[in-house]
Write a structure and sequence with these properties.
43% of the residues lie in helices and 18% in strands. It has a single domain, classed as Rossmann fold (3-Layer(aba) Sandwich). It is α/β, with parallel strands linked by helices. This is UspA domain-containing protein.
Length: 168
């Protein structure tokens, strides 16, 4: 069985991983060894994004473009954060399930659906932040989007009530 778990810095995504390791891979799904791909998607930095139509406008007008060193530094920082998040997730899987990691850049909801289709996974697992209808309408919901657009079965793991009320 091939499974993807979407991981970000939230407690809810780590709870979803913990739940999956404890309940899915702890004897409930038998047979051959399972492989979990831990996927972290970070959004591209908007700080250094230059619109494709931006260019110096002419004499006396200057445009400030970020140096490649600044862009590279920002990218390395994002990669280090992603690696730290996935390292924590790998520790949760150690000795329980075979796991691999994948870092992607883009919109998390789109990338999770895309990679699950490309890798032909059997199950996509994501955590739920427990947003209400209004917040979900304005902020969007990765789990809601994946539930409607993923081409594979999806498991949305809701956090326990104690965890949800502690954030309020």
């Amino acid at each position: 069985m091939r499974v993807i778990v979407g991981i970000d810095e939230s407690d809810e995504s780590f709870y979803a991983l913990q739940w999956a390791v404890s309940n899915l891979f702890n004897g409930l799904i038998g047979g051959e060894p399972n492989l979990v791909t831990l996927v972290h998607v970070h959004q591209p930095s908007k700080r250094y994004a230059v619109p494709p139509s931006a260019f110096p406008a002419g004499v006396g007008v200057t445009a400030a473009f970020p140096s490649t060193a600044a862009v590279d530094s920002e990218r390395r920082s994002e990669e280090q954060i992603s690696a730290a998040i996935l390292s924590r997730a790998l520790e949760m899987c150690s000795n329980k399930v075979k796991a691999e990691t994948l870092i992607m850049e883009g919109d998390p909801k789109d990338m999770l659906c895309e990679v699950s289709e490309q890798m032909n996974v059997d199950l996509l697992i994501v955590g739920s932040r427990g947003l209400g209808r209004i917040k979900r309408a304005f902020l969007g919901s990765v789990s809601d989007y994946c539930a409607h657009h993923a081409k594979c079965p999806i498991l949305i793991v809701k956090p326990p009530k104690e965890m949800a009320t502690a954030k309020d």
